[in-house]
Write a structure and sequence with these properties.
- The chain is an alpha/beta fold.
- It folds into two domains: 3-58 and 323-422, Aspartate Aminotransferase, domain 1, CATH 3.90.1150; 63-320, Aspartate Aminotransferase, domain 2.
- Helices cover 37% and strands 17% of the residues.
- It is built from 13 helices and 16 strands.
- The chain has a seven-stranded mixed β-sheet with strand order 4-12-11-10-7-5-6, with helices on both faces. The chain has a four-stranded mixed β-sheet with strand order 1-2-3-15.
- The longest helix has 21 residues, at 322-342.
- It starts with a helix and ends with a helix.
- The chain binds pyridoxal-5'-phosphate.
Length: 423
């Protein structure tokens, strides 16, 4: 029996309405930019498996490091113990993180990285005896599926059933050069009480909202204003981190740096689950106390798993290599000229791009069906052409692995061009 059939017996998939979408495609192999299904079809992974496998699937360098670690130490309690992969990874991360970052806290997925970031921010103030317990976040943000992360996310299909159980959060518009004055005035009103603990934000790109992009200069103004009012900055770089926006981190585009940064996804190159929440020395110091209760009592069993850390060390080394930096530039340049070319089509709008992330929206007369047939037809169209993309409603976006060659990128562009004719 095919995997697709066996899967149906016991498995409940994420983000899936099983009544209308009962089957899931069986994938048997990933290599470089390709995924192979169980009946012999090959697909370009156009979204790097949710922005993780940016160095290509089964990257030989990462695999070699992982294999080496497998024979040494596979798992260890990370409270009271440490190990070389975690120590080396912390040193490597300090080479590339914004310079104000001083400490790293491990967990194992993007949602927990954000959860830890929120807890760090709130407890930082309570440890100091300062009443700051409100959070602000961007409209339409997405920060994950645990309760804290759901609370700071904009209301959507992801968190709506739980809306009565979430922490109350004030929302602001993501800042652009057009709305910046309005956004700054709004923030001033919100921070007047002196009770706002932190701003939680996806810097420059709101991924799940449909790869919506805002302006670095405007965001810098927002961050500056928050700093002036002692509002901590929690940057969720789970998606944007590790080269996606053309720099190591999206926060590198702004002068004002975050107090706390949440990382996962490409951190370990799509090989093993791992997450980091980094912070400044000032945040860390607020937890140093003779009273144990002032410490950060948050842990996950697999925190800083040694094999995952080893995959992450190899991934950071790859990110620093000339070959990968060239790959990021190649995607940037080719995506930009492709978007320039298709921009005049009357079927699409809002072409946008930063680093390796590219997107546009199909114009629709009736927006009510974007998450129904329209999206599913496009998804099927791309899959039949051998390209794995996951349209977000009428938004088409692609985040190709950094190892994509010019020919492969042009092939992807060609299929996307055909999709515009198809619609
Ligand atoms: C910006 C951002 N934050 C957090 C998350 C949650 O990460 P995870 O799915 O690993 O929990 C995601 C996932 O897509 C994300 O894009």
């Amino acid at each position: 029996m095919k995997l697709e059939e066996r899967d149906k017996q016991y498995i409940w998939h994420p983000l899936n309405q099983h009544k209308t979408h009962p089957t899931s495609k069986g994938i048997v192999k990933g290599e470089g930019i390709y995924l192979y299904d169980e009946v012999g079809n090959k697909y370009i992974d156009g979204i790097s498996s949710w922005y993780t496998a940016v160095y290509g699937h089964c990257n030989p360098y990462i695999l070699q490091e992982v294999k080496d670690q497998l024979g040494k130490l596979n798992q260890i309690v990370f409270s009271g113990f440490t190990h070389e992969p975690a120590v080396v990874l912390s040193e490597k991360l300090m080479e590339i993180l914004p310079q104000n970052q001083a400490k790293v806290f491990f967990s194992d997925n993007g949602s927990t990285a954000v959860e830890v970031g929120i807890k760090m921010a709130l407890q930082h103030w309570s440890n100091k005896g300062i009443k700051k317990n409100k959070l602000i976040a961007f409209n339409e943000g997405f920060h994950g599926d645990t309760f804290g992360a759901m609370s700071v996310s904009g209301q959507s299909i992801y968190n709506k059933p739980f809306k009565n159980y979430l922490v109350k959060v004030e929302r602001i518009l993501p800042p652009t050069n057009q709305n910046i004055n309005y956004v700054l005035e709004h923030i001033i009103k919100l921070v007047k009480s002196g009770e706002v603990a932190a701003l939680v934000y996806e810097p420059l790109v709101q991924g799940a909202a449909g790869m919506k992009m805002h302006d670095a200069e405007a965001l810098n103004n927002v961050l500056q204003l928050c700093k002036e009012h002692e509002v901590l900055l929690v940057a969720d770089e789970v998606m944007t981190g590790f080269g996606k926006t053309g720099t190591n981190f999206a926060s590198d585009h702004m002068e004002i740096k975050p107090d706390i940064i949440c990382l996962s996804k490409a951190l370990s190159g799509g090989v093993l689950p791992l997450a980091i929440t980094s912070c400044t020395q000032e945040i860390y110091n607020a937890f140093l106390n003779d009273d144990p209760a002032k410490g950060l009592f948050h842990a996950h069993t697999y925190s800083a798993n040694p094999i995952a850390c080893r995959a992450a060390i190899a991934s950071v080394e790859l990110l620093q290599s000339q070959e990968i930096q060239d790959g990021i530039k190649r995607l940037n340049v080719l995506n930009r000229s492709f978007l320039e070319e298709i921009r005049s089509s009357n079927k699409i709008e809002n072409t946008r791009q930063i680093g390796v992330i590219a997107a546009f929206d199909f114009k629709l007369e009736n927006n009510s069906d974007t998450y129904g047939k329209f999206r599913d037809n496009l998804y099927d169209f791309f899959m039949k052409k051998g390209l794995c993309l996951r349209p977000l409603g009428n938004t088409i976006y692609w985040v190709l692995p950094y190892v994509s060659s010019e020919e492969q990128i042009k092939k992807v562009h060609n299929i996307i061009r055909q999709s515009i004719d198809f619609v």
